[in-house]
Amino acid sequence: MEIQEFLEPDSVINIRASSKKQLLQELAKASTRIINHDEGKIFDTLLERERLGSTGVGKGVAIPHAKLSGLNSLQGVFSRLDKPVDFESVDGYPVDLIFLLLAPLEANADHLKALAKVSRLLRNTDFCEKLRGASNSEGLYILLTQSEAEAA
Predict the structure, then answer these.
(1) Is 65 a catalytic residue?
(2) Do 100 and 64 contact (CB within 8 A), yes or no?
C-alpha cells in the first residue's frame, strides 16, 4: 500500500494549535472539508481513540487514527506545525508532525497496512528532518508520496 492511495495533495494542510484538544479539533475541521463527514463525529471519534492511549509515537510525531461509519475509503491528512504541541507522547516530547488516518469501519486489514506504512515512514529520523525542512505543502506531499526507498 502506497501513501498516495490515501493522501491527496489538498490533504497536506497547515494547522495552528496550542493544545492537543485544539489540534484534534482542527484536524476534524480540515477532514470535514476533505471527506465531507460530520466534524463533531470525527472529533469525538479521535478523542475516544486518544483515551485508549496517546497516538503521539515519539520524536515529535503523532499518528492519530480512527474508524468512521459512512466513510468509503481510507483518508489521510498531514500537517507540520510551526510550533510543537504537547500531545502526551510516549517520550514526553511535543509533536510537530501529525499524520491523521481515517478509515471505514470495515477496513481492518487496509487500516492496519496504512497505519504500518505511515508509522514505518515517520520512524525514520532523517526523513522527519526532511519533512521539517520542506518549504511548502507541495514539497511535503512529494516527500510523503515518494517511494519508501527514496524517502530513506
Answers:
(1) yes
(2) yes
Average pLDDT (58-70) is 94
DSSP state of 4: G
All structural domains of the chain, each given as residue ranges with its CATH number in brackets, are 3-145 (3.40.930.10)
| Interval 69-117: pLDDT, tens | 888 899 999 999 999 999 999 999 999 999 999 999 888 888 899 999 9
Q: Are 145 and 7 in contact (CB under 8 A)?
A: yes
Which among 25, 30, 50, 65 is annotated as catalytic? 65
Contacts of 150 (CB under 8 A, 6+ apart): none
Q: How far apart are CA 41 and CA 48, in angstroms?
A: 10
Residue 37: partners with Cβ closer than 8 Å, 6 or more residues away: 31, 68, 70, 71, 102
Q: Which cell numbers hold the place of 95?
A: 509533536
The cell 481492518 sits on which residue?
Answer: 108
